[in-house]
C-alpha cells in the first residue's frame, strides 16, 4: 500500500479566506505487478517489463537523430469491476510511435471503493504517477551516456474542463505536478482518452 500527500486549496465560506487542506491518499500500488507481469504491444504481443525497456531503447536507436517523447496515461470503465489499462507510449516527434500497456484489475473488496466514480478517476492518476516515476528512473539508468534525445515530462489524464470531471481538474493536475510531471487533459490527453480508453 502506497500513500501520496496532496495539498488542496479551499475557500472558507464563512470568512472568504483561503486555506490549504492536506490529504493523504493511500492506494494499492501495482508496481510489483507491473514489473513481474506482462505488458501488451499490438505488434510484439506480450512482453516482460525488461522487454518493454528494450523495445523503447531499440525504437529510439533506430533513428537516433530524432527527438522522442515518453508519456504515460490511464483510463478505466465505469463498471462494478473496472480494468485500469495503464499505457506507456514512446513517440517519435512528427512520426507516430509505439505503446505498451498493462491492464490492472483489483479484488472485489478493493473494487467497492470505485462505486464512487471519483475514486476511480483518482486511481487512474495514482497509477499513472506510480508507473511514470518508476519508469523515468529506469530509463535514465538504461539510457545514460547514450546520444538519444528524449523527454519524459507529461502524464495524460482522462479529465477535462467540460463534463463530470471538471471539478476535479485542479486537484488532479496538482497531484501530477506534485509528482514532478506536467499534466495534459482532454482534448490533449490522447494517450489516456484514446489509447488507454480502447482497452478499458
What do these coordinates show?
The chain is an alpha/beta fold. The protein has one domain (about 25-200). The chain contains six helices and nine strands, in the order E-E-H-E-E-H-E-E-E-H-H-E-H-E-H. It has helices at about 30-35, 50-60, 110, 115-145, 170-180, 190-200; strands spanning about 1-10, 20-25, 40, 45, 65-75, 85-90, 95-105, 150-160, 180-185. Strands 7-6-5-8-9 form a five-stranded mixed sheet, sandwiched between helices. Strands 1-2 form a two-stranded antiparallel sheet. Strand 1 (about 1-10) and strand 2 form a beta hairpin. The chain is globular and about 45 Å long. The model is unreliable at about 1-30 (pLDDT under 50).
Strand adjacency order, main sheet = 7-6-5-8-9
Overall pLDDT level: 85
| Helical/strand content category | alpha/beta
What's the domain count?
Answer: 1
Distance between the termini: 23 Å
Number of contiguous helices: 6
Strand proportion, as a percent range, falls in 25-35%
Radius of gyration: 18 Å
**Which stretches of 5+ consecutive residues score pLDDT under 50?**
1-30
Q: SSE string, helix = H, strand = E?
A: EEHEEHEEEHHEHEH
The dominant shape is: globular
- Please outline the major beta sheet: 5 strands, mixed
Helix content: 25-40%
Tally of strands: 9
Amino acid at each position: 500500500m502506497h500513500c501520496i500527500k496532496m495539498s488542496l486549496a479551499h475557500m472558507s465560506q464563512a470568512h472568504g479566506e483561503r486555506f490549504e487542506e492536506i490529504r493523504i491518499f493511500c492506494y494499492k500500488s501495482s508496481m510489483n505487478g507491473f514489473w513481474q507481469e506482462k505488458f501488451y504491444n499490438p505488434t510484439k504481443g506480450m512482453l516482460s517489463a525488461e522487454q518493454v525497456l528494450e523495445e523503447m531503447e531499440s525504437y529510439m536507436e533506430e533513428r537516433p537523430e530524432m527527438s522522442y517523447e515518453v508519456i504515460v496515461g490511464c483510463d478505466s470503465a465505469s463498471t462494478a469491476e473496472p480494468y485500469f489499462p495503464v499505457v506507456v507510449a514512446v513517440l517519435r516527434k512528427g512520426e507516430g510511435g509505439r505503446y505498451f500497456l498493462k491492464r490492472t484489475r483489483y479484488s472485489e473488496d478493493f473494487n467497492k471503493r470505485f462505486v464512487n466514480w471519483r475514486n476511480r478517476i483518482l486511481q487512474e492518476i495514482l497509477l499513472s504517477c506510480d508507473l511514470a516515476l518508476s519508469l523515468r528512473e529506469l530509463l535514465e539508468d538504461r539510457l545514460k551516456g547514450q546520444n538519444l534525445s528524449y523527454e519524459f515530462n507529461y502524464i495524460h489524464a482522462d479529465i477535462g474542463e467540460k463534463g463530470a470531471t471538471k471539478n476535479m481538474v485542479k486537484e488532479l493536475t496538482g497531484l501530477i505536478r506534485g509528482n514532478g510531471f506536467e499534466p495534459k487533459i482532454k482534448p490533449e490527453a490522447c494517450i489516456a482518452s484514446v489509447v488507454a480508453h480502447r482497452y478499458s
